[in-house]
Amino acid sequence: MDVTQGFGLITTELETHRRNLTDVSETLSSTGGGAGGLGAPPSAFGIIGEFIPGMLQPLVDEAGQVINAGAESVRETASMVASTVETYHQIDAEAQSGLDKLGGAL
After folding, report:
1. Tens-digit pLDDT profile for residues 36-53
2. Is 4 within 8 Å of 92 (Cβ atoms)?
3. b vs e for 49-75, b when ≥16 Cβ sit within 10 Å of the residue's Cβ?
4. What confidence tens digit (pLDDT) does each residue in 56-65 have?
5. How many CA atoms lie within 13 A of 33 on its CB side?
6. Which phi-psi region, left, alpha or beta, contains residue 46 (left: φ > 0; alpha: ψ -120 to 50)?
7. How many Å apart are CA 96 and CA 89, to the nearest integer?
8. Alpha carbon of 49 to those of 19, 31, 63, 70: distances in Å?
9. pTM of the entire predicted model
10. Of the candidates 27, 29, 99, 97, which has an alpha carbon nearest to the alpha carbon of residue 64?
């Protein structure tokens, strides 16, 4: 008997959610890591606009940092979901053990 199922806890859905979060985190990490290398060459805006790429680069770098921070946040959330699933399984096993002992005593 799966006690958590009696309470309507579907840990497989949580595990799927954790995997999806991990995938999102990896995508964000690869995007954020590549953002710093982006930027326009000095000639992209012509002679008059040669100063523009230098002005844009700090924004591109900051965007990469923000994306990496988001990736870390999603990674931490995935870890917390995994911990929640493990806790549910542990509580389920302890509850089942208690019910088994109670049933054996009757």
Report:
1. 666 777 777 888 888 888
2. yes
3. eeeebeeeeeeeeeebeebbebbeebb
4. 888 888 998 9
5. 8
6. left
7. 10
8. 45, 27, 22, 32
9. 0.72
10. 29
